[in-house]
Amino acid sequence: MRAAAYPAYRSTWHRWLKQVPAHWRERKLKFAAHAQSSNVDKHLVDDEELVRLCNYTEVYNHAQITDDLPFMAATASQSEIEKFLLRAGDVIITKDSESWDDIAVPAWVPKDLDNVLCGYHLSHIRPNAAELDGAYLHLLLSSEAVNYQFCVAANGVTRFGLPARQIDQAIVLLPPLDEQRAIVRFLDAKTAEIDALIARKQRLLELLAEQRSALITKAVTKGLNPNAPLKPSGLPWPGDIPKHWQVLPLTKYLDSWIDYRGKTPRKTASGVFLVTAKNIKGGRIDYQLSQEFVAEDVYDEVMRRGLPEIGDVLLTTEAPLGEVAAIDRTEVALAQRVIKLCGRRGILDNGFLRLWMMSAPFQWHLLSYATGSTATGLKASRKCILKLLLPPIGEQRSIAEFVHRRLERIDRQVAKIEGTLTVHREFRSALITAAVTGQIDVRDWEPRKAAA
Question: Per CATH, which fold does 246-390 belong to?
């Protein structure tokens, strides 16, 4: 997208911004808006008024706070209602986070909300309508350049918080009001185009995930020969299976089933990589999703129940339940809520076992025997219930090799789409920052007219 710069700029002393348009003003937020941290909690108190509470998740997950969001019921005093009732133009930001660079996520209130209050762990900002437009402020706080002020101001070690005084002290850029609204119109149109493109890419990823699941399930329940005679499986979930296949107890055909539940190992800053349930996703170990370590001198004790071998299959038993992966390197430790399985040599191939455990029938069967309300898990005592569809060993290997090749193709498509999604999101972020910091002049921008 080509966009002109402003005709004149002036320098600033801010680390996060070198220059702004010459006619823009810079002010501390406290002089252009009223910011206050909410103290309205989730408790129900008998002598208080019943209200709806906008909480952290609504703000973190939505750019706009609208009446159709699932606000929780709470109570508040009359003074709290007067202070924190959400009105058109208000901006809410998160003031706490587990990461310093994920602080002050903003959301905007486009219309007055009936009986909805800003809740705890949030800061409520009401712009001075005479000089600051709420929709513009939301975009300004969404930009990386301006949000940087909050990131560096957050304090904490394992959890970070943003003090109220740092919100007041933040520098905001104030173009004239009509220019703020022009920036909002421009970014609303352009980000909508980008968001539509992102949504289409995400739908492609969903379709590829469905294709992946269907490929695995068909291969491990029907085999590769479409003309093979079938027989009833005797189970409700896979339907008919090839006539020469067997339905057997899973644990009976394993050389090992090692559950690493027990004492949590002490984590260290370096050492042997600890594979946790968070690392196991989509059939493989993702070493970037969580990075924890155990000391080398305690490794043997941590892994006393059984050392990992290449190709061993991992199954998560909780948080989340049912994720599967194959061990691809031996220099790892295994955490709680992870089970290591190995098929009986010459009878059950680990490649086929991994695919079977990723299939829809196994996952359905696993979940049907899971327990728990907030964190669903599998008790060790129930492992004997799990079933296995077992073709001859040679056929298992053929199935595993065929599916592996097909999955590699799908994974390449997924990686390509995820790469374009990253580019789209980065461009979206850069476009917002460029517009709200005056690096591009959008005052004369007009939306394209639809073709006749």
Answer: Adenine-n6-DNA-methyltransferase TaqI; Chain A, domain 2 (3.90.220)
